[in-house]
Amino acid sequence: MPRLHMHVTDAADAPLRAALHELRGTLEIPHHFPPTAQAEAESAARAPRIPAADGAVATEHTLEDATDLPLFTLDPPGTLDLDQALFLSRRPGGGYRVHYAIADVASFVTPGGALDAEAHHRVTTLYFPDERVPLHPPVLSEGAASLLPDRDRPAVLWQLDLDAEGALTSTSVRRALVRSRAALDYAGVQRVLDDETAEEPLALLREIGLLREGQEVARGAISLQVPEQEIVEHDGRYTLAYRAPLPAYGWNAQISLLTGMAAAQLMLASGTGILRTLPSAPDGSVARLRLTARALGIDWPHHTSYSALIRTLDPRRADHAAFLQDCTALLRGAGYTVFDGSAPPPADAVHAAVAAPYAHATAPLRRLVDRYTSELCLAASAGAEPPAWVRSALPALPREMETGTQRANQVERACVDLVEAALLRDRVGETFEALVVDIQDKDPTHGTVHLYDPAVIGPVETAPEGPALPLGHHIQVRLAEAEPGRAPVRFTPA
Q: Chain-wide mean pLDDT for the chain?
């Protein structure tokens, strides 16, 4: 599980960028696409080959025309790989209708081709603090396949009907030609929602998002609002600060989550699919978290569930942020479960954090498995058999996704270590106020501290045979080591 998301602005220092470049070389991250894959992408961008229901190839001219839907995208500023576009409306008889367009990557990637092989090698888009390494060539992911505004695009178009309480009542999926009207960002959307100047399709994002959050609470699902770390400049020096996600981010995420749950239901009903699964956390893990909460001074009444407690925390507070970060340990062990019609779907194929069956379905430009989920759901919605190329790929997908996810986590862990070391390299020997947020069971002289300023989490160790670290206590620590690319940050008690 990645610890934190980190962002480096263009103003970040050159040595840090050089170290990140060196890190990509050390991890053997591909810099370019193979010529054959790039050529396929450029050809597909000019003339996409849209799969038809009968196994033939269609064109944009023969697709259902849904360009009258005033869709919009919602992403961080400057995002070009736009996987999803949405339009929200009220149903005449009560309740809501969600139209959710997903980039139709299968219209641009030929099964068994060089581009397909490269996607199976990369598996996911990789995010570094200063740049990203895309799953698909930018001519597709930021161009012909992306749901950019004012461009006609082939898409997998979901129609999700909800009742007045926000519960899903019906689902349909089809291919269509769509056109997004606007590329919105979270800060701008939050602003017009807060001052109540948003028009209804956008205002419904909050209304539906809050209802879906209520459905989430009723299921007992877990929603971690882990803050991002952002590198900021202050008085000529760079430091780390937390940035808590805006409510609009969570409401938009609820639409994606809704679609993933609907995708799981479709595939389970059809008998063929691939689910994102997560086992329930063992009792010992929750008991350990209770000890951590007590140490951090977080009130966790015995009658309050873990999922309910999480919703009371403020990710902008250092102690709450530290606890939320520790909570990610309960999300380890996630995987993918395939079922192919030869046997009943697994009874325990549930994602424990979602508290329901769930599938990755909404980010095909950035994650390999989502392309296959789209095809399986299109077939299920039409009452048809999945394409042969999809069924033949299913057995290997869980392992491929596991490998890709491990690589993404390795990248993020390495980036966190590197960035923290780069920002603290000139402060070795200084002391900082910190909170002991973890200690090793086998050696309580080794643990983890969370600095109050800057927002750094790092290892701490006392001298051999020294006293045990005081879990949950505030202590002063001295920065013993910080050398970007050579030694991550390490602290000793002061």
A: 88
* pLDDT tens digits, one per residue of 269-283: 999 999 999 988 776
**Scanning the structure block, which residue is given the tokens 């329930």?**
280
User: Looking at residue 473, what is its pLDDT?
Assistant: 82
pLDDT at 336: 94
CA of residue 130 relative to chain centroid, distance? 18
Mean pLDDT of 468-473: 83
Structure tokens at 280: 């329930």
Residue 74 token pair: 């919602």
Other CB atoms within a 10 A radius of the CB of residue 62 amount to: 13
Confidence of residue 233 (pLDDT cuts 50, 70, 90): low
HEC readout, the chain: CCCCCEECCCCCCHHHHHHHHHHHHHCCCCCCCCHHHHHHHHHHHHCCCEECCCCCEECHHHCCECCCCCEEEECCCCCCCCCEEEEEEECCCCCEEEEEEEECHHHCCCCCCHHHHHHHHHCECEECCCCEECCCCHHHHHHHCCCCECCEEEEEEEEEEECCCCCEEEEEEEEEEEEEEEEECHHHHHHHHHCCCCCHHHHHHHHHHHHHHHHHHHHCCCCCCCCEEEEEEECCEEEEEEECCCHHHHHHHHHHHHHHHHHHHHHHHHCEEEEEEECCCCHHHHHHHHHHHHHCCCCCCCCCCHHHHHCCCCCCCHHHHHHHHHHHHHHCCCEEEEEECCCCCCCCCCECCCCECCCCCCCCCCEHHHHHHHHHHHHHHHCCCCCHHHHHHHHHHHHHHHHHHHHHHHHHHHHHHHHHHHHHHHHCCCEEEEEEEEECCCCCCEEEEEECCCCCEEEEECCCCCCCCCCCCEEEEEEEEEECCCEEEEEEEC
Sign of CA dihedral 106, 107, 108, 114: positive
Q: What are the residues facing 158 on neighbouring strands?
A: 100, 173
* Nearest-angstrom CA–CA distance, 415 and 108: 32
**Whole-angstrom distance, CA of residue 210 vs CA of residue 194:** 14
